[in-house]
Amino acid sequence: MNDASQQTKILRSRMLELVGQLRADVPTVAEPQARAMFETSAEVLAGLVKAFDDYGKKTGSPWSEHPGFGYEKPRPQSAAFLKHFGH
To answer: Is the model's pLDDT at 71 over the cut of 50?
Structure first.
């Protein structure tokens, strides 16, 4: 399948299905950590669905007219951060 538009529609649909399943499962899970993980996963996937929507509509930061086309260079980490995390 070479048609990116068709492929993104299929993947978007699958993600929406999973978002629905995760949200439906939240009330059925007794463990608070698992509920939080399901809720967070649903929110992250919903953000990806929006990114796929933006791609399909050619809107959002990847399509805006600014240098880097939505890509920001990684910021160098401070010495304190690197020391704290063992790098």
So the answer is: no
What's the domain count of the chain? 1
| Domain assignment of residue 20, given as a range | 4-64
Q: Which residue has the higher pLDDT, 86 or 51?
A: 51
Closest CA relative to residue 50, chosen from 60, 42, 41: 60
Q: Which residue has the tokens 């704290």?
A: 84
Q: What is the pTM of this model?
A: 0.64
DSSP 3-state of 72? coil
d(CA 78, CA 60): 31
Distance of CA 41 to the CA centre of its chain: 9
